[in-house]
Amino acid sequence: MAFSLRQVRYFVAIAEIGSVSGAARQLSISQSTITEAIQELESDLGLKLVERSAHGMSLTLKGYQFLRHAEKILGEVSSARRALHENGAPTEGRLQLGVTPLVAGYVLADLLARFRRAFPFLEVSVVEDNRDYLEHLLIGGELDIAVMVLPPSLSLVSLEAELVEASRYRLWLPLGHPLAQAGGVSLRDLASEPQILLAIDEIDEAPKLVWQQMGIRPPIAFRTRSVEAVRSLVATGAGLAVLPDLTFRQWSLEGDKIEARRIQEELPAVSVGVVWRRGYRLSPTASQFLSVVQNYRTIRQRG
């Protein structure tokens, strides 16, 4: 028996929101209905897609692989329905979009998938660069809108910003590490633990500042601009990492598993926001993209 579109939609919902209860609220159905649908989907595929633990629900490695296909399936169905109802008259327009590196890796794909499902005939041109350069392009009118990691003060004098999500830091550890036995970990516990630093969008600054205030200097094992490199290095025991939760995935590219634990200290969350030039009237395509971002934010908050 082939899996159904309903099962695919439920699977994508729990993957996006991160919990069965959150997906049930969004879809206005019972949790048992979603649970039964996912069990039927796993039975049909002969694969375990979702696993539960004391720390919540997560996708298995096969679950992450299937998610890419599931999103494409829903996108194609949405495009087909829209094409049939619009009698072949596509909406025209082009969006000039900017993103910072962290957004490009961990937020952009989801936003673009949602945007293309809603507006399949609009073109999107994306520029990835650091925040300062994107601000320059926005002020100069070369970009319509940008999604970026916001500065801590949110004082963008010439720009307007709307928060998309705020992501707390967690500690990444390999399986079996002694610190993984605790529900929460203090940054003091990392004084002698080799650290893998991710040097993009200034996200390594917050933990370094706290360590400085504590008077400790954990050894730096590796500094990189690649989250996948951090994931692989942590999984193989080369060091630990303190990173925002939006970057966390349980599996490295090699199929090794890592764990994440809450940090006891209050680190400022990494804020992702959508930004445009102050006083600039958004183009129709930019306004449509902003509406997709706002819907994305609502779903993340419900989850």
Tell me about this structure:
By secondary structure, this protein is of the alpha/beta class. Helix content is 41%, strand content 23%. It has 10 helices and 13 strands. It has helices at residues 5-17, 20-27, 31-45, 61-85, 101-106, 108-118, 131-139, 205-214, 227-235, 284-302; strands at 50-53, 56-59, 94-99, 123-128, 145-149, 159-167, 169-174, 184-185, 195-198, 220-224, 241-244, 258-263, 270-277. The strands form 4 sheets. It has a 5-stranded mixed β-sheet with strand order 4-3-5-13-6, with helices on both faces. A 4-stranded mixed β-sheet has the order 8-12-7-11. It has a two-stranded antiparallel ribbon with strand order 1-2. A hairpin with a 2-residue loop joins strand 1 and strand 2 (56-59). The chain is flat. The relative contact order is 0.15. The model has no long low-confidence stretch (mean pLDDT 85).
